[in-house]
Amino acid sequence: MTPTYRGSERAILDDTIDRNREALIASVARLSDAESRQRLVASATTPIGLIKHAAAVERFWFQWFLDRRTECDGPANPGEESYLVDDFESLDDVIAEFRRASAESRRIAARFDADDVVMNSRDEPVSVRYVLQHMIEEFARHAGHADILVEQIVQSR
Question: Which domain of life is it from (predicted)?
């Protein structure tokens, strides 16, 4: 995916979020389903779990926070349990879930300007720019986590 080198701040923010989403997917997608479930750290973090968590993060920030939904199209709590994947869910299923959540996030975000402000649960103003920047940070961090976990898994083959 070629970066957007020029354009509005918003175009660059949106593009960077998308590139980080794709980097996370690309890192994990090269694993088998069984490999994606390998747990190499003390926490519940697994490669497939990073994708599952990213879908919950999408729903939390875009559906619940920006769109003010009381019911999202899936789990929207980005806490520790968001890394857990049911046995019946395949890696392809979880990637598809993340892609659906991302598509919905894009639709929601398109209705806002970066300068728009939404009040958080503590009645504090939060700019949409902050949300977009936070998503860049969130997905970049998890893509890095995925890269390290996947490298360990691939080297152990």
Answer: Bacteria
| φ, ψ at 118 (rounded to 5°) | -125, 140
pLDDT at 4 over 80: no
Question: 25 to each of 30, 49, 56, 114, 124, how far by Cα in Å?
Answer: 9, 12, 15, 26, 33
Q: How many residues belong to the chain?
A: 157
In this predicted structure, which of 2-16, 42-56, 66-80 has the lowest mean pLDDT? 2-16
- How far apart CA 65 and CA 121 sit, in angstroms, is 9
| Domains of the chain by residue range | 9-155
- Compute the distance between CA of residue 17 and CA of residue 15 in angstroms, rounded to an integer: 5
pLDDT given for residue 1 in this prediction: 74
Q: Does domain 9-155 have CATH number 1.10.150.120?
A: no
Gap between the Cα atoms of 95 and 146, Å rounded: 13
Q: What is the pLDDT of residue 5?
A: 82
Distances (CA, A) of 138 to 1, 50, 71, 111, 134: 19, 11, 23, 22, 6
| 119 backbone dihedrals φ, ψ, rounded to 5° | -80, 135
pTM for this predicted structure: 0.95
| C-alpha R_g of the chain | 16
